[in-house]
Amino acid sequence: MEFLKKYKYINKEFFRNYRRVKKNVWKGRIDGEDHDSLRWHQNIQVIDLEDNLEDLKFENAVCFIGFSSDEGVERNKGNVGAAEGPNAIRREMCNFPKTREDVTLYDAGNIFCIDEDLEGAQKALSTAVSKIIALGMFPIVLGGGHEVAFGTYNGLLDVVSRYQKKPKIGIINFDAHFDMRPYEDQTSSGTMFLQIANQCKERELDFSYFVLGIQKYGNTRSLFKTADKFGVKYILARDINDYKELEVKNKLNMFIEENDHIYVTICTDVFSSAYAPGVSAPQPFGIHPKSGRELIRHIAGTGKTVTFDIAEVSPRYDSGNITSKLAAILIFEVTDNLGRFSLKKEEK
Questions:
Q1: pLDDT for 306-323, tens place per residue?
Q2: Are 209 and 173 within 8 A, CB to CB?
Q3: Among 14, 123, 177, 231, which is most exposed with the fewest C-beta within 10 angstroms?
């Protein structure tokens, strides 16, 4: 990526909020040292984004970055606890088997929310995601509250805007909620996609947003009207639970075809609370993980997915780490089905 060689990533928000992960977070069972016996904790490499990494080659690499914040959830009057999500998810990923020889795993650490400064934390995350993508890696962001989405999206937008005049980024959100609430007073974990919509309007970019798993009882009539106003595509959770898989995939395929880059974000409250009890807003009638896994595998395999995050895993409300395990397995499915990571370049 020669066009990004001279790009300067570091800013004061990044210095303030970024911490490298400790290697002892990644530990687990050891069956052997041969290639067929390796697990993720034996294979992962810890890196520091404050280092000069531009001369290293990161080909077909996946890089984890944590977002240890639930300030947005607290502002949204939800159940806080998602700030502990990143390391809880890491613990569940440690013993996964290494199934792909062509994919290398890295961990770049965590972004923290300091002194309730959510906006500073989101800006720091944007910087981290931007650097990870510019280095040629596929970022997987471990939330944290779903306010993570604003930082992840802007990190991707920052990179692609440097070589595309009008980047076409499609957002696929697995969520029970639109997260398009008004934010005149302050932003939160319920406002990110309205923030992004308004940002796109200001920059004369397309706002392309598709939500899977919407609950009618979880969104006001005003939110449905806001979604319609901005041309949001959505599918209700009940329609996914009715096994309309082919219909859902056809709609997804049309959406993906319309965009150059796909950003996938998952709020774990989209799943039934029988499988995801440890979330900010549990959903008894959420979608079944089997349906979510199949759709995520489908999207990852299209070759257009360039960024992924998962949010709202709250260990303090979890039961037997079931929600952390679900999040970890979905991440495994992404890495196991991911097409070759590349950005479609269009010189300005």
A1: 999 999 999 999 999 999
A2: yes
A3: 231
